[in-house]
């Protein structure tokens, strides 16, 4: 599926960012009520259930064809992408959000484009000119300035879910995993059979299934499954509804859109990841609406700088021709 619109892939990437920005708020509540590891396990099961129904209905394929129609290379690369980006990356994200809050926790997603750019250089041969690199740096600088000024850091509170240093470390690890996960998914889209492209819904499904199988295999082998899912069975602090909402906007809508964007932005995963990293920009007004957090003028200026960086990155070729 494609569109004649020249920047349709970038537009879908912005839709992904909006959906992810919405999902971090219910996931933050869920992680604080049920625990980040419990949320990570439960939302993967929910995501696989919803994506199985959606994929079978929209493609359409049989349940057996979900497993047999992809190439082995699809299972390899999308599976690795799911393990790195979803099983590991989202666990780090949920922990960081629970400790630091959704707005501050989301700042670390700005490090993901660098991770994507470095891994894309080796995995898919992505090349980007100096203007594109400048655009990435401008975006990262704008968001960091927006969220980590002295006034912002003074408002960083200990929410009682772990040390702030641990939240920062896990935020960085989440960004690294997200960037690498996007590039691994891009690698999966390079494989075709008889000019048949794997549908992005099915690519999302493979990522979810792979992440779910691995994380549950580890948990079961450690004998921790019952203990880990107990908050789900008891609906601890009414956390299940928040996990459900986060799953709909995150793994179902957001991740599906991200796979679509990556498939459209062929061999340009760092561009997609830079747009995805604008989550803190979208989270800014949402934080004001949901948590009544004040928006500083410096935050608005930082947001404008970050958006300018994305514009530079997207139109880097046209800008280079001008000079």
Account of the protein in words:
The chain has 323 residues and is an all-alpha fold. Helix 1 crosses helix 4, helix 4 packs across helix 10 and helix 6 packs parallel to helix 9. The radius of gyration is 19 Å and the shape is globular.
Topology of this protein?
Blueprint: H1 8-34, H2 36-58, H3 63-68, H4 72-100, H5 102-105, H6 112-123, H7 130-147, H8 150-154, H9 164-188, H10 200-221, H11 225-233, H12 240-264, H13 269-276, H14 279-291, H15 297-314, H16 316-322
Helix pairs in contact: 1-2, 1-4, 1-12, 1-13, 1-14, 2-4, 2-10, 2-11, 2-12, 4-9, 4-10, 6-9, 6-13, 7-15, 9-13, 10-12
Strand count: 0
How many distinct domains? 1
- Please give the alpha-carbon distance between the first and last residues: 35 Å
Shape: globular
Q: How confident overall, as mean pLDDT?
A: 85
Structural class: mainly alpha
Q: What is the strand content?
A: under 5%
Gyration radius from CA atoms, angstroms: 19 Å
Q: Tell me the series of helices and strands, N- to C-terminal.
A: HHHHHHHHHHHHHHHH
Which range best describes the helical content: under 10%, 10-25%, 25-40%, 40-55%, 55-70% or over 70%? over 70%
**Sheet with most strands:** none
Tally of separate helices: 16
Indicate the low-confidence ranges by residue numbers: none
In short:
With 323 residues, the chain is mostly helical. Helices cover 78% and strands 0% of the residues.
Main traits of this protein?
16 helices; mainly alpha; 323 residues
């Amino acid at each position: 599926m494609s569109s004649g619109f020249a920047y349709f892939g970038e537009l879908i990437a912005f839709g992904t960012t909006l959906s992810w920005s919405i999902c971090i708020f219910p996931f933050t509540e869920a992680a604080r009520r049920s625990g980040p590891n419990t949320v990570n396990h439960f939302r993967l099961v929910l995501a696989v259930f919803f994506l199985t129904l959606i994929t079978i209905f929209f493609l359409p394929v049989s349940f057996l064809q979900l497993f047999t129609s992809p190439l082995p290379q699809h299972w390899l690369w999308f599976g690795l992408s799911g393990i790195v980006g979803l099983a590991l990356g989202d666990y780090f994200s949920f922990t960081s959000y629970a400790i630091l809050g959704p707005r501050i926790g989301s700042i670390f997603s700005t490090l993901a484009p660098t991770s994507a750019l470095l891994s894309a250089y080796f995995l898919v041969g992505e090349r980007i000119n100096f203007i594109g690199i400048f655009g990435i740096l401008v975006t990262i600088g704008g968001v960091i300035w927006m969220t980590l000024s002295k006034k912002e850091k003074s408002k960083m509170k200990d929410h009682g879910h772990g040390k702030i240093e641990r939240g920062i470390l896990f935020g960085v690890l989440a960004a690294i995993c997200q960037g690498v996960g996007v590039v691994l998914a891009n690698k999966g889209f390079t494989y075709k059979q008889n000019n048949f492209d794997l549908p992005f819904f099915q690519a999302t499904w493979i990522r979810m299934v792979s992440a779910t199988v691995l994380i549950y295999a580890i948990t079961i082998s450690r004998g921790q499954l019952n203990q880990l899912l107990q908050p789900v069975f008891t609906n601890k602090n009414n956390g299940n509804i928040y996990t459900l909402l986060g799953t709909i906007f995150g793994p179902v809508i957001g991740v599906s859109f991200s796979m679509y964007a990556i498939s459209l932005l062929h061999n340009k995963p760092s561009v997609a990841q830079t747009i995805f990293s604008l989550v803190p920009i979208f989270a800014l007004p949402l934080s004001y609406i949901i948590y009544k957090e004040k928006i500083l003028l410096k935050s608005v200026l930082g947001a404008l700088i970050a958006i300018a960086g994305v514009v530079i990155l997207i139109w880097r070729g046209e800008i280079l021709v001008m000079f």
